[in-house]
Amino acid sequence: MITKKEIAEHLGISRTAVSLVLNNTPSSTISIETRSKILQAAKELGYRDVESSPKLCFILYERDANDPRYMRELHLVEQAASRHGYGLIYMNVTNAPESMDKLRKALDSKEIDGSVVSGDVDEYLIRVLRGYPPPFVLLGLPLKDNIDDLSYAMTDDVKLAYDATRYLISLGHTRIALFTGSLDYKIHQCFLQGFGQAYEASGITLDKSLIQISNEENGYELCKRAEMLRLDYTAVFCANTVLQFGVRQRLQELGVSVPDDVSLISAGFTELAKVSVPQLTTYYVEETAKAEVVTMLVDLINRPASGRRTCSFTEFSRHEGGTTGPRKG
């Protein structure tokens, strides 16, 4: 049977666009023209979604539908769901009343057997999900409290930040900046904790002015702020590849060489890491490990009385991009 990847290659467009259209994403920004081309190609090439197959749902909450950080998660969940004999529905949801109404209708339709939930999950979304029968598993753990009865697959972000920062230190960097997002979110608190632990373990005094926070997670603006503050740094650990890409853009405008003058490393692995020139150096969880979230959900569907499922990813791979190097001078 024809796959979404083959349709994308046939049309010369991204697999993300094909997935968004064929998963019938309601808030997708794909143009009508492109959508028509994808649907026509799917028909001509013989693509068919098995309507009678059970369905899982990937819920992306309070994030842009095309956010590259979550498109990789969508792809791996889709692949893992297929291996378990499930189709996948993708819903991009906000806390706006009309958006939540669509989610409630979907959960109440009995079409969805279970959900993988990602994005900026909050207590409001959890309350809504608890009100319907399909089980759900969080991919990530952005909540502060009240998680004792929740199923989740989370990355040990403290250890990831520690490992990435220690790697920069091993390259001779002692003035490492942290560019991260709002500390209202658990993930950014964890990055801060791991970053500080790496300094402490290395016996290096941390200049706290090197810790810069952006609620919008805008690396370009954080880099400009560092300029205005005249911060002296030779490396940056960024909370994600979107931040890292923005920093890379600003440094390029300034004529600052990466990695000769400044090294950049981040958490996660997205398309941005590959399309950047040079490619971005990142620490990330392998897809085979992260797909465990679907196995957990399917087990929860089949054996609901056996209790919640939890998993922590503690081992990381490093994508050897071209944005890190030994400290010069």
Written description of the protein model:
This protein is α/β, with parallel strands linked by helices. It is 43% helix and 18% strand. It has 13 helices and 12 strands. The protein has helices at residues 4-11, 15-22, 32-45, 68-83, 97-108, 123-130, 157-170, 186-202, 219-228, 241-254, 271-275, 287-290, 292-302; strands spanning 55-61, 87-93, 112-119, 136-139, 152-155, 176-180, 211-213, 235-238, 263-267, 281-284, 310-313, 317-319. The strands form 2 sheets. It has a 6-stranded parallel sheet, with helices on both faces. A 6-stranded mixed sheet has the order 7-6-8-9-10-12, sandwiched between helices. Helix 10 links the parallel strand 8 and strand 9. Helix 1 packs across helix 2 (15-22) and helix 9 (219-228) packs across helix 10 (241-254). It is globular, with a radius of gyration of 21 Å. It starts with a helix and ends in a 10-residue tail after the last strand.
Which stretches of 5+ consecutive residues score pLDDT under 50?
A: none
CA-based shape? globular
Portion in helices? 40-55%
Cross-sheet strand order for the largest sheet: 2-1-3-4-5-11
Counted by DSSP, the helix tally is 13
What average pLDDT do the residues reach? 90
Proportion of residues in extended strands:
15-25%
Biggest sheet record: 6 strands, parallel
Overall structural class, as computed from helix and strand content, comes to: alpha/beta
- Round the Cα radius of gyration to an integer and report it: 21 Å
